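Hi team, as promised in this morning's meeting, here are the two structures we talked about. I've kept the exact order from the run log so nobody has to guess. The first one is mostly here for context; it's the second one we should focus on when we meet again. Sequence first, then the predicted structure tokens.
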Amino acid sequence: MSDALEKAEAAVREASTDTAAVQLAFAAMELAKAAQQQAQTVPQHHQCEHQHKPRRSAGEWLGIACAVCVGGVGIAFASLALAILGGTAAIVVLVLRSMWTDYQRKGR
């Protein structure tokens, strides 16, 4: 008998929580209706008359982000190439200077 009583109590608790959820849903619907009615009662002279720019879509933002990433990688590779070129030029200059000093000593 206590098992049936526990089941009945659980059913009552579930019904009371369902009722609270339904009441919250109805309250949300009433708030939405009130907000919609309030938006409709706004006078028309408050609307702006200038043209708004269309906003960018998610695809456009994704394309911009990809372009920035590709550009950043390109700049990184260009910087690396310049660093390698500078190092190579420095080594060539040092070798040529060493060769020049050796040539100057042997020439005397």
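And here is the second protein, the one for discussion:
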Amino acid sequence: MTTPTEPPPPPDRSAAARRGRKLGPIGATVGSAHRAWLEPMRGAYLASGLTLSELSSRVSFAKSKISELLRGVGLYPRWEIVLLLAVELDMPSWPLYRLWRQAAFEAHKSSEWVERCTQGTTVTTTDDTPSPLDHQAFRELVEGDYLLYAQVFLDDDQRDTAVSDTFDILWLSWNDALASHDTRRFAWNVLRATVMTRTPHLDGRPELSRAAFDTVALQSLTNPADCINQLTESLELFTAMSRLPTHQLDVMVLRRLCGFSPERVSALLGASLASVRSNERHATRFLESVTCPPPSEGNTP
């Protein structure tokens, strides 16, 4: 699959001056699925130049309730009010709805509650509006590679959901992606954050034990004893890989587990070829020092 070599050009837009009371931070208890749609909505509000009072008058909803919604505090919001805000903030409703729905289930809302919230708004909860053409083109270029990366950490269903959510988040934040220093890097950060929120962690490090069972070396063996030895070796390697810094881990996953060339990794991450090679070199040295330590002087013949 071809990956983009140049990001789309950023739009020419100036930051809107803020008036009125400053919006408070997102609540500490907001879950990852809720944050996935809340952060783009907050970004759209901040970019709009509207005050909470102005937004309140437009949607006929209390300013205090809008503030709570935009901070993720209080009760999980019903779809009707989220949709009203989305219309005023010129946000696409379809990807927003899908993310809102997932977050509702994360907040332990029932299917009946979700259905009641969407009654009368079915026209806005169907995939009848295409994403921007440059967003569609970007997705076609990188989706296969994103799936391969996610497969290292997640099972098939979680992998597909994580990548789908990534492109929904990017759709909601597409103007920010285009205005960023590098659209590819912006998108990769969204993918990584989305995958990592679903990846089991041990002592703050992502678990790669799934990948150990899916290595080419292991699949090529038929002798049970050889399989056990190879599995032990793979588990040791992937445990060490989980200790790598973020950028080094991503490069090693893409290079060693996905089999991508340095040039392909560079294009996918939006990073220079020199930085990719440097990260791989430092990661390799660390892994060799952990999995193949030099013999101690006392054991030297």
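Starting points for discussion:
Strands lie at 201-202, 205-206.
The chain has three domains: 32-124, 133-200, 202-293.
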